[in-house]
């Protein structure tokens, strides 16, 4: 035990004192924030150039409806009336905004000659484009936009929604429905989610909860891979430098492997704790506001499950990485074998969508029981909708049993492999190592 503690101390202090640890600990949160915030900020910025459009329609009244609908929907939120603000979901409204302002003309001439005139205006730069809303096009629900720019996907989707609403308003007006009545009929429905736990009802922010759980799952996924690779590299470096021969004179191979797994894992936990403290300090005002309203509330069970499944997932995969580090002779060989280890984690990430949609479905239940998937999928089920206690217990029993079995096998491979040099051993040779180490 004393030797294991010395290895843990050496592995931990050697890594936390490295400049790469300090730089990565400080820069990675900034990089992650930039990766999410900068694209969102850019997408919400309006272009300084105004989009000049011509709406061509046989009915001037319909053209005016389209014009008013597009202009009203493209206004910033603070330019709308107080009633409009209360009726619409501000977050969803901001997401649907176009990237620019519009200046719209209504043209009641839908002849082919007018089409030629408009095409020339587009070519000369007088206008940016025109919408062809002839009676036949509107009746067939197939309108065309002609312009110098194709426009972005989100902007075209937004413009299509405004045309749908304008056509519907026109048809309601033809049936004697006033504009006020039409607005009431077309008012969107707001679905409020209320979580019921322990006989208490609390409002829930599904979007905030989703991103919180998703961030924790991705943190678990990346940490398991990153620190597992660190274990493999540490074993490979000491093996190639012949340091192992010196270490084995005072400690057993099992003590060395246990020390490396726990030492590198402690480094990972240290880094994650620092990131959580930094994220908590950055988001403290928002978290306090959300906690006071009950919109975003992560239960203690979810936090405890994250710590537990992180530790178990790390032990499961890092022990395999340690065995690979003892087998391979170069980092290139390790990169080729990493895919076999990472594949279950990749499958787990792809399964996140189906599991979040139906956490009690048979495929979600049974895949979360598989030890190589459970660190991600069972934790995800606990975060989304806690499963029965027996399912959690069975998953943990299977996971711990698998870890114990893999640790025994990997310790045997580690015991022989760390002293083997030259070419990478074949699978039959590894099987011989297991028998030899057992004996």
Tags for this entry?
elongated; two-stranded antiparallel ribbon; 439 residues; alpha/beta
Tally the helices: 20
| Major beta sheet, strand line-up | 2-1-3-4
Number-wise, the strands total: 6
Percent helix? 55-70%
Major pleated sheet:
4 strands, mixed
The whole-number mean of residue pLDDT values reads 75
What is the H/E string? HHEHHHEHEHEHHEEHHHHHHHHHHH
Shape: elongated
* Count of separate structural domains: 2
Beta-strand share of residues = 5-15%
Distance between the termini: 23 Å
Which residues form runs of ≥5 with pLDDT under 50? Answer: 77-95
What structural category characterises the helix and strand content?
alpha/beta
What is the C-alpha radius of gyration, as a whole number of Å? 31 Å
Your description of this structure?
The longest helix is centred in the middle third of the chain and has 35 residues, at about 205-240. The protein has helices at about 1-15, 20-45, 60-75, 80-85, 90-95, 110-125, 135-140, 155-175, 180-185, 205-240, 245, 255-280, 285-295, 300-325, 330-350, 350-355, 360-365, 375-385, 390-415, 425-439, and strands spanning about 50-55, 100-105, 130-135, 145, 195, 200-205. Helix 12 packs across helix 14, helix 14 (about 300-325) packs antiparallel against helix 15 (about 330-350) and helix 14 runs antiparallel to helix 18. The radius of gyration is 31 Å and the shape is elongated. A hairpin with a 2-residue loop joins strand 5 and strand 6. With about 450 residues, the protein is α/β, with parallel strands linked by helices. It is built from 20 helices and 6 strands. A 4-stranded mixed beta sheet has the order 2-1-3-4, with helices on both faces. Strands 5-6 form a two-stranded antiparallel ribbon. The two termini are about 25 Å apart.
